[in-house]
Fold this protein.
Amino acid sequence: MSTLERLADRLESIAPVRRNELLSRHTTFGIGGPADIWVTADSPETLAAIVRETTASVENIFVLGSGSNILVADEGIRGVVVDNRARQEVALEPAGVFRVGSGASFAGYARKMCRQGWAGLAWAVGIPGTLGGAVVYNAGAYGGCLADVLRGVRLLDNESGEDRWVDAGDLGLVYRGSVFTRGALAGQTILEAELALAPGDAAALMEEAGGYDSRRLAAQPRGRNAGSMFKNPPERPAWKLVDAVGMRGARRNDAGVSEKHSNFFVNYGNAKAEDVAWLVAEAERRVFDAYGIRLEREVAFVGAWA
Ligand SMILES: Cc1cc2nc3c(=O)[nH]c(=O)nc-3n(C[C@H](O)[C@H](O)[C@H](O)COP(=O)(O)OP(=O)(O)OC[C@H]3O[C@@H](n4cnc5c(N)ncnc54)[C@H](O)[C@@H]3O)c2cc1C
């Protein structure tokens, strides 16, 4: 029996396990080959137990949120992929402080808080993904971002197995980035996050959220995608650059650059990761040749790329 098979057996005593799970079923792109081991965590404690058990014997572990900001390779991800459904919510003192599992739906939680009359997250009602993913990227929209309301996170050090609280001020939260994306806290798992919201008027907050919904519907394409492919460089919005080099509407097999929003790359059917990657590289090359600007990817390319 291989090390991975023995690990899968041990993980089964902690949480539900599947083998060779196709990741295209778990990404908003609808793209991605198999994970060797797929294991579902339904609480921060189970998430921690899975990470500890895995890292004791193999190196490859990937904590997946909603798969809304990643392009998974056609060959999939080797080792263990954790399906994070740790969604517990606890109201703390003082009023307005909440501790939430990192697997909670960020948009769902934001909408619920608006409905309950807690202000600070109306801008987030249309952002797919989990709270954990939102921390990693300091998710934001319409002038708001998670850093505005995040107090801190409970982290698990994948290597030592220790968990600790880290204040938001120490997470290096910037536009679509953090210490996690810059590698400083890579190899750490976000178990929970603490948010501080202010009392507000529920009806007004729901109206504000509805306004953001309408703006999103008007600006963004439908279909399978991972949101903005590139961060906006200081010089010009990424969509304008991609448009200006003639890539709006470009196709490679079933992958394409959206006609509606040229920073959105879309899977129109059975696109492969390599089709999307080809278009992304082409856009990067053309923008650099034309303007000398290096586009920075917001979407992470993960897994076993050739
Ligand atoms: C239609 C659409 C619109 C979007 N609009 C916006 C927008 O307006 N603003 C915005 O900021 N983003 C937007 N996004 C991007 C995306 O929704 C966010 O980046 C989101 O926060 C990603 O969360 P996730 O759970 O899907 O992360 P995933 O894609 O599952 O994971 C992304 C990375 O985070 C890591 N990660 C996830 N959870 C944890 C954890 N618990 N511990 C450690 N690492 C973890 C993963 O390992 C991976 O490296 C959009 C995406 C789509 C598809």
